Amino acid sequence: LTIMGDAGMEPTVSPPDSTAQQDSLVSMTDVFLISLIVGLLTYWFFFRKKKEEIPELPKMQTVAAPVRDSSFIEKMKKTGRNIVVFYGSQTGTAEEFANRLSKDAHRYGLRGMAADPEEYDLSDLSRLSEIDKSLAVFCMATYGEGDPTDNAQDFYDWLQEADADLSGLRFAVFGLGNKTYEHFNAMGKYVDKRLEELGAQRIFELGMGDDDGNLEEDFITWREQFWPAVCEHFGVEATGEESSIRQYELVVHTDVNMNKVYTGEMGRLKSYENQKPPFDAKNPFLAQVTENRKLNEGGERHLMHLELDISNSKIRYESGDHVAVYPANDSSLVNQIGEILGTDLDMIMSLNNLDEESNKKHPFPCPTSYRTALTYYLDITNPPRTNVLYELAQYASDAGEQERLRKMASSAAEGKALYLSWVVEARRNILAILQDMPSLHPPIDHLCELLPRLQARYYSIASSSKVHPNAIHICAVMVEYETKTGRLNKGVATNWLKNKVPDGNGSSSMVPMYVRKSQFRLPFKPNTPVIMIGPGTGIAPFIGFIQERAWLKQQGKEVGETVLYYGCRHEREDYLYREELARFHQEGILTQLNVAFSRDQAQKVYVQHLLKKNKENIWKLINEGNAHIYVCGDARNMARDVQNTFYEIVAEFGNMSQPQAVDYVKKLMTKGRYSLDVWS
């Protein structure tokens, strides 16, 4: 007989005397009975509690948030729409373009709706053919290094895994990108290609907007060819000229409870007074500025280091992540707009969507005051897009000014050229336009409806959470420049951050923020060498990287070579974090500290020149040490020049042709050994 298990082996042990055995049996019986009684009592107790709680459940259900209908097909059928325009938007531009396209539809006897892919089940695309003359348009921005925007991530994942039959779907794609980036319009290209692979029918070619050029003109050019293609496909005609149709109606609140009025919150009312994690774009954390110091010793620019206290927020970050901050517009600009329009900025109002079925009930949190809207919710510093000028034209009493506005909003070559020179290149914001067109007096509520949302600004975090778990550091340069019209334009966020005072607990020291995860990461193995290239404020993430490598060394880990290539204009003016870097170098944390001072000599010297100077060592680190390369800073010139330098080094020391060297570097990128954190 074979008895399985450890318990079954006990009978093979020699039996003790019978009395002991009897005592043992008694104690075992006692234990069994006590356990049984305790078990029954426990079961009865919890069973009884459950029965008592059952009547309470309906009450709990009534206060729960309603479940959103995730079928855009049902919504389109219910509201008589046949065009849906999805947007993947990080800064609001793609959403703006989607709204413009959906409004265009009425001119052709069609009805459109703009839709956030995050709010709907996109597998329903296969059912769109159930609606007559149906079309799906996708305005897709590319974020970072060829990534989808946050709100399009689920859609992107679904496209990658989907094996759906989309043969009944008609579609068109307009991509928003920037040519200075490696993966120009990657998301637009992918959506366009993947939908076709799944059997969908493209009714107009992929449009590709370039934000490094003139994104607005790219969109207008695509749009003016897109609609004729739609007309031809469906056999419809334009019903008339573009007309001004209000999307929101104004409601003025004369007797309102001020506790129900938004004062700058991004999502939940009073969320800044009653903070609740988790913190994200719709629920930012109000962090206190504990330090704000000027980094540069001279020169015209103002470079600053800020420290945000994130204690008790449960916010976690890694070196290389980005911190997003929600800034506020300069109060003097807001006041001037109010004065020109003769408006009481403290009037409490709401802008309510005329389409009751829309998920977007208001263009920004309402009810609120015009002052709050113009300060916290609306972008008043960027040059307005052509659709805003078109809508505003009707409010110019001077015929010449009205004609000028309409011309700039037209698709005629002369109009496009005028918009480019008078608005874009002159950097005229809405205040400058109102000042330079004295007869233009739009109702402030319509202006608030037309202006885009003020967006969060992203900064590479300049600290390591291993060393500073309760703080996030920012390194930034204040943007300030004179326009062609002689006006002084200031960067919204950097000007606002500069004035954040660490003393006290008032709003003057508070910054609404959240963390956005990044792929810009130190190697998993600490002994892997790293080559960091970051001139100017591009040094930010590398301060965090160096802090982390120092911490790892303190923990007894073997840390590989840590090489930095940094650059600034003048050694005595804008050498950022000079003392910290010197200390890290002295302590052996930084194995190499290479600094290019571009304007301290007749011939300009940049980081790429120092890379060429040390090319043999660079190749050895890459080829033998499997080093990881990191580039942070300007995308337009620096990142491209640095990349070309790596092509040259690889070609020379790897005995490769130029195409082979390019392929080698691209493979490093694919493997995560060449990472970029760049901006233009």
From TrEMBL:
Keywords tagged on the record: Endoplasmic reticulum, FAD, Flavoprotein, FMN, Membrane, NADP, Oxidoreductase, Transmembrane, Transmembrane helix
Pfam family, one: FAD_binding_1
CDD domains for this protein: CYPOR (cd06204)
GO MF annotation: an example: NADPH-hemoprotein reductase activity
Transmembrane region(s): 25-46
PROSITE patterns: FAD_FR, FLAVODOXIN_LIKE
Keyword Flavoprotein listed: yes
Name listed for the protein in its UniProt record: NADPH--hemoprotein reductase
